[in-house]
Each structure stands twice: as C-alpha cells, then as structure tokens.
Amino acid sequence: MKGWIKRIFYINWILFSLLLLISPKIQAKNNYLSKINVSKDVSFLKARPVWGKNQQGQINITLGFRSVFNSQDKETPLLRITGGSYYHIYLNGKHLAFGPARGPHGWTRVDEYKLKNLKNGKNLLAIEVVGYNVNSYNAANKEPFLQAEIESGEKIIAYTKPQESKFRALLVDERVQKVPRYSFQRPMMEYWQLNPNSRNWIKDLDAKFSPINLIKQPHKKLVPRRVPKNDYKLISADNIISRGRFQSDYKPDQYWKPRYYANFPEYYIAFRPDELEKDPLKKLQQIRMLKQNKVKQRLSPDEPLKLESGKSAILNFDIIRTGFPGIKIKCEEPTVLYWQFDEIMVNSDLNLTRY
Fold this sequence. Notes:
- There is one protein chain.
- The protein is α+β, with helices and mostly antiparallel strands.
- The protein is built from three helices and 16 strands.
- The chain has helices spanning 3-34, 200-203, 280-284; strands spanning 50-52, 61-71, 78-84, 86-91, 94-99, 108-114, 121-131, 145-152, 155-159, 168-171, 211-212, 214-216, 222-224, 239-247, 288-298, 311-316.
- The strands form four sheets. The protein has a six-stranded antiparallel beta sheet with strand order 5-4-7-2-10-11. A five-stranded mixed beta sheet has the order 9-8-3-6-13, with no helix packed on it.
C-alpha cells in the first residue's frame, strides 16, 4: 500500500474511533436536554399578551406589572410567563429570574417557575419589562409585551388580560427613556433617577402608584424554553486595584461621537442627540482622572466601600463573567454615582473611547 494511502486510512480510522467514543456523550447530552423542557404543552390557559395602551411603538419603555395573591401552607403556585424585549421577575421583593431565553425569529420561549417560600397570606409578584423597539444584534425588533399567569392547584388565580387582568401595570419612569444606545450592536444605555420610594412597587404590598391601561397584543407563537435556567449565584468583586481622584467638569476639545450616537444610517433606530433627556456618553467624557494609585486591597462582601465626593475606585472581578451588576448604596445627601464596567482595561484604567 502506498504511503499516502496508508496515511489516509489511518486518519479515517482515528476519526471513526473518536466518533465512537464521543457519540454516547452526545446522546447523553441530548437526553438531558429533552428533560428540561418547561412542558410538552406551552399554551396559556387564561393569560393574553398585553402592553400599555399609550406606550405602544415607543422606544425604550419600561413597564411594571404587579399581582398580589393569597397563599396557604404547603401551596406552591406555578408562574407561567413569556414576554419581550426582556423581563425581571421579583417575588416579595427578591429577584427570582430573568427572561425570556433567546428564541427563533417569530417565536417566543415560555418559562415556568415554582413560587416557593411564600408568606402565609398575601404575596407580591412583580415583573419589570423593558421594550426596546429598536433593531439590534441583542434582541429582535418586535413589539414588546407580557403574557403571564399564576396557577395554583387547578385554578388560574392571576393572569394578564385587558379589563379583567389580575396584574396591575405602571410606567417605570425612574428609568430615563431617551438615552443613547449602549453600542451599535446592542440596545439602550440605562440611566436611573432614583429616590427612596422608587422601587416600592416591587416590594411593598401597599405601594402607591399610578396604574396605566393595558391593551391586548397580537397572538404569539410559543416554544418551550429547552435550555437550563440560570442559578443567579451571587459573586462579589475580588479586590480593589486602584483608588483615585477625578474632576467631573472637564471640557474636552472634541467629544467622541461613535457611529451609534450621531450620523447613523436611516435604517438604524435610536434617539438623535437633540432628542436625548440624558446623555451619559457626553457626561462620562467630562470625567478626567487627576490622580490614580494602584493598590492591592482584598474586598470583603460584608465590608462597605467608602467613597468621598470626587473619589473613585476600580474593582476587579478577576475574570469576565455574565450576569447583572448589583450594588447597595447608602448616601446621606443627593448623590450622582458614575458606574462604568468593561472587559478590558487600557493603561490601568477604563477607556470609554477604546472602540
């Protein structure tokens, strides 16, 4: 047998052997995935897709949905939910889940969550939904909606539906609507104007708010989740790697204006600079570090990080992680907090214009 024929024979034999070795693992993985569907039937019994009547078609709108329901001992109600663009679920003030999982165009994935550790009596389920209404690589550009119901025993005790909904809705206006996009590929930045009562609607049974009217949205094509749920494990920053001083009124000779901020093509959906209520992109360029010292300080989750006015700190998470940044803030007077994050540092600092 010629040399090149032998080589081809041995290469094919090795590849075939490897396929035999890994095929049981592939089968096992497929069996695992088949067991994590929410259910074979993902239809809703009573819930209909809804959105705010006066908020349809608007860019970057955030709505809140609340349902107060009763629970008795040993009851474990089931929440069935889908929506878009994205939603956060809170149960009695504590974060429960984020969704929906990504799905194919024209379809939306359904989640089911058991509502555990309930109070005996009244409980509060709150759902915060952001509707971007923009084209991006992050989320499909489709009309936002929420479709959710709570099933207890064989009864649907709360569901979304205009006029007879057991969910009351509100406009979450502490999140500023008219802001720049986060990047060319992703939707909007977040800019929050908070006060001590801003998040009461999520945790307070008797919270006061102005309800909005809901309107039915078109029927949605539903598909099971089919992927594992997140565990939402809390991970704290490992250490402080620098401390410094900054000025917040620096005036650069020329502001950096990326393609997603100004002079973007007609097909690209975003607020124009003259439409913005708040412009974090411009404001962050007015921050200039005056002094920055490298430090190596372990950060304990139970030890507060104290910052005076005009002072800064850079915290390190050691590796790139996926999740939701969270922080507890205590301030004794009205305060503006500048909070940036990035995967890469440039010259030991965060560089907004590195793109």
